[in-house]
Every structure is written in C-alpha cells, then in structure tokens.
UniProtKB/TrEMBL annotation:
It comes from the Bacteria. It comes from Saliniramus fredricksonii. Pfam families: Cytochrome_CBB3. One of its GO terms (molecular function) is electron transfer activity. Residues 35-114 form the Cytochrome c domain. This is Cytochrome c2. InterPro entries: Cyt_c-like_dom, Cyt_c-like_dom_sf.
Length: 114
C-alpha cells in the first residue's frame, strides 16, 4: 500500500511542477505586453491627452474627440487598422510621427481599456 501512495505522490508532484512551470511561462510571456501598455500610457498622456480622454483619472479633454475607452470598445477596430491609422497623417490630429514601437505600445495601452 505504501508503494502505491508514493507513486501517487510522485505523480501529484509532477503535476504541481508542470502547473508551476506553465504559470511561470504565462507570466513571462505577458510581461512585454504589460511593459508596452505602460509605455503606451505614458505616450498617451504626453501626446494625446490634450485632445482625448486617455485614462480614467483624466477629466479634461475636447468633447469633439473620442475617448480612448470609446476607441477601445469599438467592435470594428483591430490592432492592425489602429496601427495603420496611427502611422498615417489624418487631420485634425497632428502628425506625431510615432515609431513602430511607440505605436505598438499605444495600441497595447488602448487594448487594456476594453
């Protein structure tokens, strides 16, 4: 009976180690996305907040511009078409000439607002 219990205990330990390893991979994989979103929030506050409401703590912006929350909730908006939009000039928005990394970070931040 003791041999059977030791085998079961070993299998349980393997399952636990497997679960811990998988959890560590998930956390590690999401770290760049979290870093991008944090960088995107900084970019949004610096470049976008004068016209758009970019976050929950902001209360002053143009009433003519969609908030980032409204943008994030649009069903027809994907990361790809938002990236294309941000890469091309489109009045009345100023041509910010954001880098690809800055655009990716800004999109990552907007995606956190969904």
């Amino acid at each position: 009976m003791q041999v059977h219990d030791e085998g079961r205990k070993a299998r349980m330990m393997q399952a636990l180690y497997g679960t811990l390893a998988a959890s560590a991979l998930l956390v590690t994989a999401s770290m760049p996305a979290m870093a991008d979103a944090l960088q995107g929030e900084v970019i949004a506050e610096r470049w976008c907040a004068s016209c758009h409401l970019v976050g929950p703590g902001q209360d002053v912006a143009s009433d003519q511009m969609a908030s980032f929350m409204q943008i994030a909730q649009r069903d027809d908006l994907t990361a790809e078409n938002l990236g294309a939009f941000l890469r091309s000039p489109h009045p009345p928005m100023p041509d910010l000439q954001l880098t690809h990394n800055e655009i990716r970070a800004l999109i990552a931040y907007i995606e956190t607002l969904e």
